[in-house]
Amino acid sequence: MSKPPKTFKPRKFKDADKALAAISEIYDAHIGYLQEGFRQFGTGKLKPGRVSACYPYISVTTELPRGTDSRYSYGFVSRPGSFMTTLTRPDIFDRYYQRQIELLIKNHGMPVEVGVSTTPIPIHFALGENFHLERDLSAKQIQDMPQYFDVPNLDIMDDEIANATYVREEGKPGPLSLFNAPRVDLSLQRLKHYCGSDAHHFQNYVIFTNYQFYIDEFVKIAKTKAKSRGFAGFIEPDTRKRLPQMPAYHLKRDDGSGITMINIGVGPSNAKTITDHVAVLRPHAWLMLGHCAGLRSSQNLGDYVLAHGYLREDHILDKDLPLSIPVPALAEIQVALESAVGEVTGLSGYDLKKIMRTGTVATTDDRNWELRSSIKQNRGLSQSRAVAMDMESGTIAANGFRFRVPYGTLLCVSDKPLHGHLKLPGMADTFYRERVEQHLRIGLLAMEKLRDLSPEKLHSRKLRSFNEVAFQ
């Protein structure tokens, strides 16, 4: 076995770039050590014994809270004490880490400390998203791996910090970020599995949809835009072996401010699954563009619904975000979406109400909700003042709120089952042809408007509590 990585003593920095360089140095050395050990393991040359390496950490200690720009919702710790988090993949998160470190140093006037944590790097995460144990190792080798290497430990990969259920142990530092390094690494692996894309392709502005029609239109637009100045290319999922369950497409910019679009499929379970993992990338906004059932007789097929509230009847997130917790509309997202609808359709002011309604969207986990007792169903929907029903929006918004990611929803009315207009093949085909291209252009324009705002303006204080982590 090669020599263990060199010893890294804790170092303090008042320069974010130097701190980031130290993080990368530690991470690269420890990952290299694990990868060499695994190479020897795969060839049968590794001697008995443990091959272990750990994530880098960053910490800050403050004696008194410093005055900060109160318009910012992140970049500082809210009380005196020590705070720490483990870090991973500086090749992906370099800009993000640099900005968070820069704000900590600026807002507290204190150096940050970088060193080697006591949290082991599981060998699975050291090998990257493109390694497949089943293909590259024998069954015996897979069985023997835990004798040599650290494997993922689910006990430390949870969302207690994000859920506000984390209890700080006496004498230990508080958290600096919502996610620790193993939790991030797990999601990076899952994104590759579900979306067919390496994590470094994902952009800071994400659109979710549940229809391939929207993806097909996005591919056409993105391939043209990718050749324009300011864009760094267009990446499609790897489909050589299979179509991923939730394929992702990336219209890239060099600074990560491009647009990623993901077909999440149908249902709130899929919506939770994908947003659980996209959240670790710390995007600046995510939007849902999809279809809904219009609940008002005054709505027409093809009308838009801008959600300003959510009736969460899907129950997917009830344990993590109780129904008693409101999910507010975010002003910056709402304004961008309404403005985009007006610009694309050519309508403004009172005339915009001809094709767009703002209101509560009810989200259900039952695709055949309209087959329930109509009296019972109509009573609940009437009491909630809901204007539309869908299966994903409430979950995407709730997980955005839970993970402090700015969120929004713009739906298009594709049927009105309570008023005799069911979604049938002929009607649906006509609707798709007439509305998909316009709806997508509205979503893309809204993202451009959001990109023109600074991230500090997007990451609203509405998303953060009075006892919040420092990292965005």
Question: Would you write up a description of this structure?
Answer:
- The chain is an alpha/beta fold.
- The chain has two domains: 11-188, amp nucleosidase, domain 1 (2-Layer Sandwich); 197-461, 3-Layer(aba) Sandwich (Rossmann fold), CATH 3.40.50.
- It has helices at 16-42, 90-108, 123-126, 133-136, 139-148, 181-195, 212-225, 268-278, 331-345, 374-384, 393-402, 425-452, 455-458, and strands spanning 11-13, 54-62, 81-86, 112-120, 174-175, 205-209, 233-235, 248-252, 259-263, 285-294, 304-313, 356-364, 386-390, 407-415.
- It has a five-stranded mixed beta sheet. Strands 10-13-12-11-14 form a five-stranded mixed beta barrel, surrounded by four helices.
- Helix 9 links the parallel strand 11 (304-313) and strand 12 (356-364).
- Helix 1 (16-42) runs antiparallel to helix 2, helix 7 crosses helix 12 (425-452) and helix 9 (331-345) crosses helix 12.
- It is globular, with a radius of gyration of 24 Å.
- The two termini are 40 Å apart.
- The mean pLDDT is 91.
